[in-house]
Amino acid sequence: MHGNSQRDDNNNAGAQTHARDPFVSGAVVVVTLGNPRDKFWGMILSLAPEGVSLSGIELASFEDLVVMVKDGEPFTPAVVFFPMHRIERVELDLPDGSLPSLSQRFSAKTGLRPAETLGSRLPASTGTIDREESAARAALPKKESA
Fold first, then answer.
1. Cα(127)–Cα(97) distance, rounded to whole angstroms?
2. For 68-86, how does the pLDDT look when each residue is reduced to its tens digit (9 = 90+)?
3. Backbone angles phi, psi at 9, to 5 degrees
4. CA 53, CA 9: separation in Å to the nearest integer?
5. Could you give the domains of the chain?
């Protein structure tokens, strides 16, 4: 019985760590801003006492984004910094009862994961982008020089 209790304690420790600090880099959130009032949906890049850096979009543009991505149109998320004095609230993008989260709605309509889409064009991931662009260039027909 003691062995099971210790195993449960270890499992709870991981859950408690996540519960204590859910706003980590890569978490998808909705940020409510004041002065001017606005909402932003995106992935946390950095959270510091000075503010939060996100990769995402204004919440009012969410449906337009879904249509663009679904239609295969190019999309580059905004990379923004909001100073702490403008932030009224930061909430994890989670389902609310039977209502799906924005992330779940995005995935259901596009077939893509939001974190991958929002993080796909970040400067930190230039290695991935460079490899994708190199592969795309290699597939293009070669131009003949005159």
1. 39
2. 999 999 888 999 999 999 9
3. -60, -40
4. 34
5. 25-136 (2.30.30.100)
Eight-state DSSP code of residue 142: P
For the chain, the distance separating the N- and C-terminal CA atoms, rounded to the nearest angstrom, is 81
Distance CA 47, CA 83 (A): 10
Beta-ladder partners of 96? 99
d(CA 118, CA 40): 13
Residue 87 backbone dihedrals phi, psi, to 5 degrees: -85, 120
Cα within 13 Å of Cα(138), Cβ side:
6
pLDDT tens profile 93-122: 999 999 999 999 999 999 999 988 888 766
Contact 57, 39 (CB under 8 A): no
User: Can you give the pTM of this predicted structure?
Assistant: 0.69
Burial (CB count within 10 angstroms: exposed 0-12, middle 13-18, buried 19+), residue 101: middle
Residue 62, SS3 per DSSP: helix
Integer CA distances (angstroms), 121 to 8, 27, 43, 67, 68, in order: 40, 17, 12, 19, 16
